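Severity: low
Component: inverse-folding endpoint
Summary: output formatting inconsistent between runs
Steps to reproduce: submit the following C-alpha cells with default settings.
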C-alpha cells in the first residue's frame, strides 16, 4: 500500500524499525526508510509523507473493518468504494500531485482488483487535474466547478457547473 502511494518509483515509502524519539518518551514510534539511507520517525516526517501514511492506514483499516462486518453479518462484501477528499493536493510536492489520483486507484487495486472506485475531490491544483488524464473516462467520469455568480440584482450565489474534460497533456 505504501509503495503504491509513494511519491514516485524512485522515492518509495518503506517502513523501518520502531524507535524511541527521546529518553522522556516511552513510545515505540514507527520509522520510514529515507532514500538517503537514514530512517526517520513518522512523527518527524514531512506533512506530505504523514498524510499519505495516514491515508494508507485509513484505507487498510476501513477495508478490513468492512470485511469483518460483512463476515459477521453473513453478507458479501461490496466492490464499491467511494473516496471523499477535500483539497487532495494539500502538503504534496508537485510531482506527487501529478500522480495522486492514479496512486489512489492503484492502492484500491492492491486491496481489491475488481473494486469499482469513485473519487470525489475538491482541488485548486491543475496538477491534480493532470493526474486524472490517463484514467478519465468521459462515459463514467465528470468534472464540476463551483462558480461564483451574481443574479439580476447583483446578489452573489454559487452555482455547480459541469465542465467538459479537456486533455491538456503531460505536465512534466
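Observed output (run 2 of 3):
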Amino acid at each position: 500500500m505504501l509503495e503504491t502511494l509513494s511519491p514516485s518509483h524512485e522515492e518509495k515509502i518503506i517502513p523501518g524499525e520502531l524507535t524511541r524519539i527521546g529518553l522522556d518518551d516511552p513510545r515505540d514510534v514507527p520509522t520510514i526508510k529515507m532514500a538517503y539511507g537514514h530512517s526517520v520517525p513518522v512523527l518527524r516526517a514531512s506533512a506530505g509523507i504523514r498524510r499519505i501514511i495516514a491515508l494508507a492506514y485509513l484505507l487498510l483499516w476501513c477495508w478490513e473493518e468492512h470485511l469483518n462486518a460483512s463476515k459477521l453479518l453473513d453478507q458479501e462484501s461490496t466492490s464499491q468504494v467511494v473516496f471523499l477528499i477535500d483539497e487532495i493536493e494539500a502538503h504534496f510536492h508537485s510531482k506527487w500531485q501529478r500522480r495522486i489520483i492514479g496512486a489512489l486507484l492503484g492502492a484500491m487495486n492492491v486491496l481489491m482488483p475488481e473494486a469499482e472506485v469513485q473519487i470525489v475531490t475538491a482541488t485548486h491544483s491543475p496538477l491534480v487535474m493532470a493526474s486524472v488524464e490517463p484514467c478519465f473516462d468521459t462515459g463514467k467520469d465528470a468534472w464540476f466547478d463551483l462558480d461564483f455568480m451574481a443574479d439580476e440584482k447583483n446578489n452573489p450565489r454559487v452555482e455547480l457547473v459541469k465542465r467538459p474534460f479537456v486533455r491538456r497533456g503531460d505536465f512534466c
